[in-house]
Specification:
Elements (H helix, E strand, L loop, with lengths): L10 H10 L3 H20 L15 E7 L2 E6 L6 H8 L22 H9 E10 L2 E7 L14 E3 L10 E9 L1 H6 L3 H24 L3 E4 L2 E2 L6 E4 L11 E7 L2 E9 L6 H5 L12 E6 L2 E7 L21 E9 L19 H23 L4 H8 L3 E4 H5 L14 E3 L2 E4 L21 H12 L8 H21 L1
Parallel strand pairs: 1-7, 12-14
Antiparallel strand pairs: 1-2, 2-6, 3-4, 3-6, 4-5, 7-8, 9-15, 10-11, 10-17, 11-14, 12-13, 16-17
Helix pairs in contact: 1-4, 2-4
Length: 477
């Protein structure tokens, strides 16, 4: 009789591989994703994308201490059968489906990955359909490869999670995390970073009523707004809008200016602007979850197919793409939900539209270079409009901000007619750095006062104008 070679996996391998390539903040976001998916399973897909208060009444409270991490929600809890068969397995079973709901969980690893990223043991309390039970991940679970299952115990505490929900208590915090949370100041510092990450990733969800608290501090949203001239007809500052459905994935895209194009002085002194480069770029959303925030790389079309690379002169341009599907596997996001799956055919098609819209506003910025005062007559007339109002009513004119989408290659597009400068000649930005003392030498030369108030850009432009005038005289001679 022949022998066999062992092929069973080890727990240590799973734990190491699950947690190695994910940041702590992203692991915590996975736990929040589970909360939100619970809301969707409670309420279903009906009216999810058109409702402004879909998540109202639901919450997730996170408590971070140096020796524990707790997250508690009221999002319906885990059904007993799901806990027994699926929720605590290392990966999603082929038998498990989400009944065609617009969730973001795909691979069945988020909760386990977050738990083992943070600590070595945990208790998961959950109440679903009135039944309360506890799943325990023992401290010594990873020390043996024999038993992979976790014990489940029924509980009879009527006041615990009385509205239905889940509470995860993680203890025996891993050493690296314990160092990160070793004092109140360190916890406050980490909480601040986590709040910013949550603001970026869940603004849409928070705006729709979901409440998130970190150590009793409520997280506020960062709404995305675009400039819109409310005149229905004629030339004005309006966004490029595109909508299309690819099988079971619907796409909505808006790109435009969220602030007027900057002047050369603004570019020279970005630190004093009311906005910064961190506010510009593309945000990509999958089923309400932001997977890319204000990206300015080739992943979102910058520096490709005639679109220039991002530069401070494009600081006023912002775009958003929203993918929605009842089958989250078809959404173009990575397993960490913090990036784009560039191999997605749907994303490749949408990216062409992203570049089309992006080029429209980079070209506009270039055309108006050196004529910022004239341009302001148009951009200052436009008002900030939430992107939700621009895409909320598919294929129909909007009441507050009317735009008419037209059929175009299977999709619907609003292609705005933007203002053109009276002297529509191509402009190029001249930009270089010089020693500050040398710049002051020129200031003193022109104005006899080294402290004269003038920007480096204005000095550079003055030098250019003087030489240009001499060049024209030489040409005339």
């Amino acid at each position: 009789m022949g022998t066999t070679a062992q092929g069973a996996p080890t727990k240590a391998f799973f734990v190491e591989m699950l947690t190695r390539d994910i940041e702590l903040s992203d692991a915590i976001l996975d736990l929040l994703d589970n909360c939100l998916d619970g809301v969707v399973r409670q309420k279903g897909a009906h009216n999810k994308h058109n409702s402004s208060d879909y998540y109202s009444g639901y919450y997730s409270f996170i408590t971070i201490k140096k020796d524990s991490f707790i997250i508690e929600d009221n999002c319906g809890g885990i059904p007993r059968e799901v806990a027994e068969k699926y929720a605590f397995r290392m990966g999603r079973s082929s038998e498990k489906s989400d009944d065609e709901l617009p969730t973001v969980g795909i691979y069945g690893i988020g909760m386990k990955r977050a738990i083992f990223k943070i600590g070595k043991s945990a208790k998961v309390f959950t109440r679903n359909d009135g039944s309360l039970y506890q799943v325990t991940i023992p401290l010594d679970w990873a020390n043996s490869d024999d038993k992979w299952d976790f014990p489940i115990d029924d509980l009879a505490f009527p006041d615990v999670l009385s509205c239905g929900g889940t509470k995860i208590e993680i203890s025996h915090i891993n050493s690296r995390i314990a160092d990160l949370w070793g004092s109140k100041d360190k916890i406050d510092e980490f909480s601040e970073r986590l709040i910013k990450s949550i603001q970026q990733s869940y603004s849409f969800i928070i705006q729709k009523g979901f409440k998130i608290l970190i150590n009793e501090r409520e997280v506020t949203p960062l709404p995305i707004k675009i400039l819109m001239d409310k005149k229905i007809d004629g030339v004005g500052i309006k966004p490029f809008v595109y909508k299309q459905t690819f099988d079971d994935v619907s796409v909505s895209l808006v790109v435009g200016f969220y602030a007027p194009p900057p002047s050369p002085e603004d570019i020279d002194d970005e630190n004093n602007l009311k906005r910064s480069s961190s506010d510009a770029g593309w945000t990509v959303v999958c089923n309400d979850r932001v997977v890319l925030y204000n990206d300015k790389s080739h992943f979102t079309g910058w520096g490709e197919a005639g679109v220039p690379q991002y530069h401070t002169q494009f600081i006023g341009i912002r775009g958003i793409v929203i993918f929605e599907s009842n089958n989250p596997k078809n959404l173009p996001m990575t397993t960490t939900k913090r990036g784009i799956d560039t191999s997605s055919k749907i994303y490749s098609a949408v990216k062409d539209r992203m570049r089309q819209g992006l080029k429209m506003f980079t070209d506009y910025t270039n055309r108006w270079k050196g004529q910022n005062e004239q341009e302001r007559k148009f951009s200052m007339m436009a008002k900030s409009v939430p992107v939700e109002t621009l895409i909320a009513t598919p294929l129909e004119p909007l009441t507050e901000n009317p735009i008419k989408l037209r059929k175009n290659h299977g999709g619907y597009v609003f292609n705005p007619e933007l203002p053109k400068p009276p002297n529509d000649k191509p402009y190029k930005m001249i930009r270089y750095s010089k020693n500050n003392e040398e710049i002051l030498d020129l200031v003193e030369y022109f104005y006899k006062d080294r402290d004269h108030s003038i920007t480096p850009s204005q000095i550079g432009e003055k030098c250019f104008d003087i030489i240009l005038e001499k060049a024209h005289k030489t040409k005339d001679e």
